[in-house]
Amino acid sequence: MATTLQLQQQKSTVQGYDYDLAIVGGGIVGATLACALKDSGLTVVLIEAQPHSEAVAKGQAYNLSLMSSRIYQGIGVWSEIEPKLTPYQQIRLSDADCPQVVQFFPKDLGLHSLQPHFPRKTAPALGYVAEHGILLQALQDFLQDCPNVEWLCPAKVIRTAYETDGVHLDLASSSDIPAAIRVRLVVAADGARSQIREKAGIGTHGWQYWQSCIVATISPEKPHSNIAYERFWPSGPFAILPLPSNRCRIVWTAPHAEAQTLAALDDTQFLQELRRRYGDQMGQLSLIGDRFVFPVKLMHANRYILPGLALVGDAAHCCHPVGGQGLNLGIQDVAALAEVIMIAQQQGEDIASLRVLKRYQRWRRLENLATLSFTDFLDRLFSNHWLPLVVGRRLGLRLMQALQPLKFYALKFMTGLSSRLPKVAQN
Ligand SMILES: Cc1cc2nc3c(=O)[nH]c(=O)nc-3n(C[C@H](O)[C@H](O)[C@H](O)COP(=O)(O)OP(=O)(O)OC[C@H]3O[C@@H](n4cnc5c(N)ncnc54)[C@H](O)[C@@H]3O)c2cc1C
């Protein structure tokens, strides 16, 4: 990251603007965009409201898709991140207590041997599990070597005024950060309750699910063997993701009242309930840290762009946590936006114009809609007790286990590799 002096020298090259681009929200999506713009020739300011210590302390863990890993590899941050992630080499998909299990392996996707294109020769994986703090810290470390990026933190954007040739931002901060800046383009990476989106008058559509999500970390007695589980119970999907040091992340979706009851149980009772869904295959389980409950919603912004503004990540869309797609969509958004902006900049176009930004919206809106619809479909399909549907979906799982092409296309979708490949991921 640049010092203020270096940035002031660069700023003088940007006529009438403090920076070319302001990213509001330094979560993983916003920080990834800043990293992706390293060699863009644009001056970038990343504005984050939370102090650094709070931002990295968030106890979340994410499924990181193969597409996201390729994007991080192309940006140049993968070698830092990869040793700290847990790869999973098998996915086991099942329907409640039905014994039929669909098993996915890397060979089902055509990945047979060691992955030579990764910096460390690694066994093929179907995805990775990343802890929030580790991922965010690695991105922030990478930004230390990005002289075109300045990090304003903690600083909150409290007002945005869109002018014909730029955007004026007012900031609130307790430190010596400027109270106002002027930029060509604002990127809203400020999360699901995006103030930037709301104040720009961009509406959304969607709904709250009848479910909440409980997340917890456990330590099983037996090795997790780098297997990811997704088990569909009528009350909602239940996922187990492997973490380093033989820990596992539980993502457990249940109707609101049941989720609140589960969250209020003492540790022993909670573990008993967990074992009823989890089974005994990993021996004794113990809880690590707190449990958190989140409401689950589907949200899609009616548009992703206005002149001088682009929405990315949760500011543009939120989906059901089944399949762990949310963050991955945001990472794909920023890879697409960075590509569109950099090409426009090279061709001398106005990066803040609708003409340019429409290319980003055209690229990502339908792809995101497909994932939002698919996760919604999965949740509804497997939460249904209607006997013909139960029989039909169990037959579907049997077919998927038996038919290689079905597995291949399901995996392509789950890993993000069915989406349009941004240039940064073409390596
Ligand atoms: C229970 C649960 C499980 C999930 N599991 C997965 C998973 O396995 N895989 C996956 O891919 N996704 C998962 N997700 C989704 C994932 O958490 C989100 O998609 C992702 O965190 C969104 O990142 P973001 O950077 O867009 O937004 P956020 O993480 O919300 O970051 C927004 C940032 O903007 C800052 N900010 C807000 N307003 C301002 C302002 N005015 N000025 C300055 N800064 C501001 C905030 O402080 C924050 O740091 C899950 C979600 C839930 C609820």
From TrEMBL:
Residue ranges the record marks as coiled coil: none
An example Gene Ontology CC term for this record: ubiquinone biosynthesis complex
Domain FAD-binding intervals: 19-365
UniProt keywords, alphabetically: FAD, Flavoprotein, Monooxygenase, Oxidoreductase
Keyword Oxidoreductase: yes
GO BP terms: ubiquinone biosynthetic process
Family: Belongs to the UbiH/COQ6 family.
Annotated protein name in UniProt: 2-polyprenyl-6-methoxyphenol hydroxylase
Organism of origin: uncultured Synechococcales cyanobacterium
